[in-house]
Design a protein that fits this description.
Layout (H helix, E strand, L loop, with lengths): L5 E12 L38 H13 L3 E2 L2 E2 L1 E5 L9 E5 L5 E10 L2 E14 L3 E5 L2 E5 L6 E7 L6 H18 L11 E11 L9 E6 L2 H20 L7 E6 L4 E7 L9 E2 L6 E2 L2 H9 L5 H10 L5 H8 L2 H11 L5 H19 L10 H12 L5 H14 L3 H8 L7 H14 L1 H8 L5 H12 L6 H17 L1
Helix pairs in contact: 2-3, 5-6, 6-8, 7-8, 7-9, 9-10, 10-11, 12-14, 12-15, 14-15
Bound molecules: adenosine-5'-diphosphate and magnesium ion.
Length: about 475
């Protein structure tokens, strides 16, 4: 039975690090890259008697994410202890939520190919991260700076049916969290991590197969590779009469294959119980409503608006909205310049090119949206040619100066003064009587030659439309005589 006769089933668990300044249960900083164990308090170190104090910002961000993912927000949720031993988890348990998570029963709609796909969200809960073990030769070191960093775990229902769908779901989820300002969306640095649960069943079967959990996939490419590999492995196993074991596997990025890591624990192995140090979390409905009122427009809604209201192509709309900062830049400029299509081209073209080339963040660039709008007005007003405008923009990007001042300084202004252009046209025609004669004899291709000569004489600054019109008028006159 070929692989096409099997139906893959995928559910994703995402751990997203929240962008708070301090940890979830202590005042220690969440800052990255400090000297090991500097950002720790007695709570992070798990010292006896130290009591956790909940960071309200974490709850705020969890509710924001839950609302954006159409979840029901539990006004009563419970903290649980999940027990396991790791050297980087000094308490011997992780504080998380288990039976009563803060958000449940949501869904995420995302673009997929020409359509949209909807995946149900099973639950979202808050929890603390562990520290980090660093293995150096014969030594193993423990850094607890990350211990207690707030995480959201976002668990999907097993609604995904291919590696591609899984990757697109993840991208959409990441974009939403970044839009909400709750996560930096950085897979490589591990602030957005994904575990993929994969199973296969015969097409048409009603019962799902046994799932395997693939741990910590840290790029969209690896997510796809690991899932595809795992699907093929499971199909081959089942084909050969074998049985898929419920287990946790690691993806070896070098060899492009998954490897067994450990048997998958059952929930009962963790000895979950409500944490006696933390009372149940009770929210006022007004707290939730207040957050609802401040939700920003999310990526999919933006795409639909850019297409339906602004008339952009779906493709451009998706590119613009994939980056929150770019969408914001575009929208600010749009308030000063009405041609959305032309503006989108500049944002996706020159602006993005400069940002990539210079390696600066869009939020740090010197050129402002108003200045870009000014440049496009100058093009429309024929003060500068489209081509010269690119050079002007480069200088604006470097210096943060206005279009007009760069145009004036660099002498890149376009000459639209009819008198000045006419003088050049007359001169060129007078100097090329042979070509004029050819034109008059019906060799109309010579027209391009005249245009080229005039433009060269004007160092490319003549308004092309005026040059064309004047040449046509003059040559007609010559012909008539
Ligand atoms: P655990 O903590 O044991 O991993 P969770 O409930 O946190 O359990 O996550 C289970 C994940 O596995 C969910 O994303 C769910 O969609 C997915 N899942 C459950 N059953 C299957 C299956 N048969 N095939 C693929 N994924 C599955
Ligand atoms: Mg899991």
């Amino acid at each position: 039975m070929p692989i096409a006769d099997f139906q893959p089933v995928i559910g994703l668990e995402v751990h997203a690090q929240l962008l708070t300044e301090s940890k979830i249960f202590s005042g220690a900083s969440t800052g990255f890259g400090a000297e090991p164990n500097l950002h720790t308090t007695e709570v992070c170190l798990g010292l006896p008697g130290a009591l956790p104090v909940l960071n309200e910002k974490v709850v705020h961000m969890a509710v924001r994410a839950g609302l954006a993912l159409n979840c029901q927000i539990r006004l009563h949720s419970v903290w649980a202890r999940k027990h396991y031993f790791y050297p980087d988890l000094p308490k011997g348990y992780q504080i998380t939520q288990y039976e009563e998570p803060i958000c449940e029963h949501g869904n995420l709609v995302f673009p997929f190919g020409d359509t949209e796909k909807s995946v149900r969200i099973l639950r979202i809960h808050m929890e603390e991260d562990a520290g980090k073990n660093i293995h150096q030769g014969a030594q193993s070191l423990v850094d607890l700076n990350r211990a207690g960093t707030p995480l959201l775990e976002i668990v999907s229902e097993p609604d995904l049916r291919s590696a591609d769908e899984a990757a697109e779901y993840l991208k959409a989820l990441r974009d939403i969290l970044v839009y909400l300002g709750v996560n930096d969306g950085n897979l490589e640095e591990g602030s957005f991590r994904c575990d993929a649960n994969v199973s296969v069943m015969k097409k048409g079967a009603t019962e799902f197969g046994t799932r395997v959990e693939l741990k910590n996939l840290n790029s969209f490419r690896f997510v796809k590779q690991a899932i595809d590999y795992e699907i093929a492995r499971q199909v081959e196993l089942v084909e050969g009469g074998g049985k898929v074991e419920q287990e946790t596997r690691l993806f070896d990025t070098q060899r492009g294959e998954t490897r067994a890591m450990r048997g998958k624990e059952d929930a009962r192995d963790y000895r979950y119980f409500p944490d006696p140090d933390l009372p149940p979390l009770v929210l006022e409905p007004a707290f939730v409503d207040g957050i609802k009122a401040t939700l920003p427009e999310l990526p999919l809604a933006k795409v639909r608006r850019y297409v339906d209201v602004l008339g952009l192509s779906e493709y451009d709309a998706r590119l613009l909205t994939a980056d929150k900062a770019l969408a914001a830049f575009f929208e600010s400029a749009l308030a000063h310049y009405g041609d959305a299509k032309k503006l989108a081209n500049w944002c996706l073209g020159e602006l993005s090119r400069q940002v990539n080339e210079k390696g600066v963040a869009l939020t740090q660039v010197k050129v402002t949206p108003v200045q870009l709008a000014g440049l496009l007005q100058a093009i429309d007003g024929k003060t500068v040619s489209n081509n010269a405008a690119k050079e002007v923009f480069g200088a604006m990007f470097e210096s943060g100066r206005d279009a007009q001042s760069v145009i004036a300084e660099k002498g890149l202004g376009q000459v639209s003064d009819t008198g000045a252009i006419e003088a050049v046209v007359n001169d060129i025609l007078a100097r090329h009587p042979a070509e004029v004669a050819q034109y008059k004899a019906g060799k109309v291709q010579v027209f391009g030659f005249f245009v080229g000569q005039v433009m060269r004489a004007m160092k490319g600054k003549g308004n092309p439309q005026t040059v064309n019109e004047l040449l046509k008028a003059k040559l007609k006159l010559t012909r008539a005589f």
